[in-house]
Amino acid sequence: MKKTENITTKGKGDKLVITCHQHLGTEFLEEFQAYIMQNEQFLHNAKIVLDVRDLEINANDLFSLRNFLNDHHISLAGVYSTRETTNTSARLLGIPTQSSLNVIDNPSKLGNKSLDKAVIIQRTIRSGNLIEESCDVVVVGDVNPGSVIRSDGSVVIWGKLQGEVHAGRSGNKNARIYALEFNTTGAKIAGVALEAGKKKNKEPEVAVLEENIVRLESWKKIII
């Protein structure tokens, strides 16, 4: 079995902090899973905070990691990283980051950079529902036909997107729309509508605005 000397655990309040002590790159997920398997009995039903230091983890990998932990009856209660990519991925999944966790031994390392906020909605958005927010919106569920989401930030759908979504409503051209299944033509970014006639794929996709055109890309190619 793979050695896991680069990962340690210590108690912090009612949680366990699991720390990665060096940059493992692509080997991180493999070594982390091996560590969990080796300590499964000890970690059973635990709430953990994952300290990955400067490791970048995109939303897809973090989503898979959380599912792996759930399968082993372990709750991912938070993520600490000095990388904004990892922190953004965590927030999009509704996982607390260092901005809301008191688990860091040396908070001065974080600097004064403020983190964006996101609204997490853990239900299906049904026909007739209207969601309007000034920050990023994350929906853990489907967005049904006849529903509308309007946000000044990005919108992430962990389910089927079949309703209307307007991201970057106030003119934010860097906003994006993510969906595990993108099945709508009612998508806009900063007032620009998604090109009509796009093929609907049953795979994660993201709508981006470039050169005043909203197009779809595979989510696998995007690091949030």
Rg from C-alpha positions? Answer: 19 Å
**From the coordinates shown, what is the CATH architecture of the largest domain?**
2-Layer Sandwich
CATH structural class of the largest domain: Alpha Beta
The helix content is: 10-25%
Any low-confidence stretches, pLDDT <50, length ≥5? 100-115
SS elements, strand count: 15
Order of helices and strands: EEHHEHEHEEEEEEEEEEE
Could you give the order of strands across the largest sheet? 5-7-9-11-14-15
Question: Kindly, what is the distance between the CA atoms of the first and last residues, rounded to a whole number of angstroms?
Answer: 32 Å
Could you explain the architecture of this structure?
The chain has 2 domains: 104 residues, Transcription Regulator spoIIAA, CATH 3.30.750; 104 residues, Pectate Lyase C-like (3 Solenoid). The strands form 3 sheets. It has a 6-stranded mixed sheet with strand order 5-7-9-11-14-15, with no helix packed on it. It has 224 residues and is α/β, with parallel strands linked by helices. The chain is elongated, with a radius of gyration of 19 Å. It starts with 6 loop residues before the first strand and ends in a 6-residue tail after the last strand. The relative contact order is 0.10. It contains 4 helices and 15 strands.
Compact description:
The chain has 224 residues and is an alpha/beta fold. 17% of the residues lie in helices and 33% in strands.
